[in-house]
Amino acid sequence: MQVRLTFCGTDPVAVQAVFQIQGKETSWTFGRDLLVEGIRSKVGDGDVSVWPETPEVGDARLYLELRPPEGRCVVSLPRPQVKEFLEQAMHIVPRSAEERYVRSGLTELEMHLNQAGTFSGRKDS
User: Fold this and answer.
1) What is the Cα–Cα distance from 93 to 47, expressed in whole angstroms?
2) Per-residue pLDDT, 121
3) Pair 61, 77: CB distance under 8 Å
């Protein structure tokens, strides 16, 4: 199973794990902080858990456990690559700056909704 992590600045508190399973893509979105904290110790008590392999060595693994209603899936990822992914994500949107990015996105959404609200429409009788 192939897994790709993605990050988008328009949703700065989340990352997405995209899985290739038998030619089909499926994704799971979860908090970026879970990966950040999971690099050092086990975190997560809901649908997603993350923990490092011990002891920490250069090519150590990071485990990502997903628990959908239908079962359970544990994925092993190379910790150095996850660290590099997180560094790139933090460069795009630094930790503790997420609110500013979310707020600007909400302001833009509000503007579009206000424009849509000016549509006269018609009244059905």
Assistant:
1) 25
2) 46
3) yes
Tell me the one-letter amino acid at 81: Q
Distance CA 106, CA 117 (A): 16
Q: 28, 48, 50, 46: which is closest to 37 by C-alpha?
A: 50
What region does 108 belong to: left with phi over 0, alpha with psi -120 to 50, or beta? alpha
- The Cα 27–Cα 81 span in angstroms is 19
CA distances from 33 to 20, 24, 114 (A): 24, 27, 33
pTM of the model: 0.71
Per-residue pLDDT, 77:
93
Contact 22, 37 (CB under 8 A): no
DSSP string, 12-71: TTEEEEEEEETTEEEEEEEEHHHHHHHTTS-B-SSSEEEEE-SS--TT-EEEEEE--TT-
Domains of the chain with CATH codes:
2-117 (2.30.31.20)
